[in-house]
Each structure stands twice: as structure tokens, then as C-alpha cells.
Amino acid sequence: MAEAADRAPAQGPAPTPAPGTDPEPDPEGHKGPLTIYLVKQLELAIRSFMDEALRPYGLTTFQYTALTVLQHRGGLSSAQLARRSFVRPQTMHEIVRALEERGLIERAHAPGNRRIMEARLTREGQELLAACAPAVQKLEDRLLHDIPEKRRCAFRQGLEDGLASLTGRHHG
After folding, report:
1. pLDDT digits (tens, 9 = 90+) for 122-162
2. Is the pTM of this model over 0.85?
3. Chain Cα centroid distance, residue 113
4. Where is the composition biased (Pro residues) (predicted)?
5. Is residue 96 within 8 Å of residue 170, measured between CB atoms?
6. What is the average pLDDT value for the chain, to the nearest integer?
7. Cα dihedral sign, 77-83-87-89
8. DSSP 14-59
9. How is the beta sheet containing 105-110 ordered, strand by strand?
10. Which three-class secondary structure state does DSSP give residue 168?
11. How far apart are CA 57 and CA 65, in angstroms?
């Protein structure tokens, strides 16, 4: 009886595909997960490996991201820093507080607007980022290791193009 049921045509709706998968081929004929699903999986893997690489320095990926944003931009409010670090303002408030307590950043009133506090890296923050650099570069190298050299530029360009398409911000 069970064998007959196994051979019988399925009743009801077709099975739902796994999350993030596209059962139909894309325009280039690829089947499988949607690109956005793959990007999210890559993001989660990177975050996990980053957290592990940064643990000896007492940093999380979010804290490291905030520090690197300040390294490149400096003088940002918590709200600006949150937007550039891809976290909610409430989360950034906690990150800023922790980084300030460790002496990695300092905050001062913004010139011309005493209601806004801007964060900047301290010398200790700059030194910690320099100390983290080899571990982060090792992860970057690991990410690119199995991508042939001639495709690495295209991989990066594809990520930048996708980001620009969604945000309207074009990188140069």
C-alpha cells in the first residue's frame, strides 16, 4: 500500500522551494538560489569569520566597521555613523558608548552646532585598527583565494554595481 502511495501522483499544490531559491532559470540559465540570497549568505559568513578574527582585539564586526568608517570619514554624529555602518541608531548608540569607554573614540560638540556630538578616532583607536589589519586582510585573502585572479576585479565590480543599483550611490 505504501508503495502504491509513493507512486501515485502528488495531490495538492507543488512543494514550496527552499528559502532564497529560484526554481526557474535566470536569464543566463542559472538555477538555484537567488543572487540576493547568496549575497546574504556571504554576508553572514563574513560576519562570523570577522567576529572570530576580531575577538582577540576585543572588537565585534560592528565595532570594527564603525572604527573604519571614522578612520575614513572622521567627525560623524552617531546617526551618520549608524547609516554608514549599516546599523540602527539605537545599536550605534551602544557601539559608540562602548568604543568611547575603551578610549578608541572621543566625542566633541560639532563646530557650529553644539547639540550634535561628533565622534573621532583616538590614537588608541588608530593603533587598534592597525593591529587588526593583518587579520582582516587574511580574511579578505581567504574570500578571494578560490576566485581566479582575472575574475576578482569583475567580482568586486559586480558587488559595487549591485550596491549602486539599490542605493543610487555610485562608487568611483
Report:
1. 999 999 999 999 999 999 999 999 999 999 999 999 999 99
2. no
3. 31
4. 12-22
5. no
6. 86
7. positive
8. PPPPPTTEESS--TTS--EE-HHHHHHHHHHHHHHHHHHHHGGGT-
9. 76-77, 113-121, 105-110
10. coil
11. 14
Q: Is 102 helix (H, G, I), strand (E, B) or coil?
A: coil
C-alpha torsion sign, points 119, 102, 123, 138: negative
How far is 160 from 2, CA to CA, in rounded Å? 53
Q: What is the mean pLDDT of residues 86-114?
A: 94
In total, the chain counts a number of residues equal to 172
Contact predicate 144/46, CB 8 Å? no
Residues 6 and 152: their CA atoms lie apart, in Å, by 47
- Using a CB cutoff of 8 Å and minimum separation of 24, what contacts does 82-87 make? 87/62
